[in-house]
Amino acid sequence: MQDDGIGLSKEELTSVFDAFAQGEHSWPNGSHQFGGLGLGLAISRMLVEMHSGEISASSPGRDAGAIFRVRIPLQSENNISTTAAPSSRPAVSTDSICHRCTS
Description:
Layout (H helix, E strand, L loop, with lengths): L1 E2 L6 H4 L26 H11 L3 E5 L7 E6 L27 H4 L1
Antiparallel strand pairs: 1-3, 2-3
């Protein structure tokens, strides 16, 4: 994802995925203009890594936007575990599907 927003400094890039990290987005007297707790990107990193993926951020600097890349490997049908716990939800019957909606 690429934007043309406020960008990130080199210092901010080193901690952008840390929990509670917030860049110095100064508004009058150094207060944070955009709010938030600084958890969004930390949670994103956790979710991506749970799927054996990678997330990265880059930015040319202040007022030059940022680029965030997420890479999650594809898993083929052959690699899916057959020992997974059975679902507690009942199987869906195709008999209940409206055939007019699927044709």
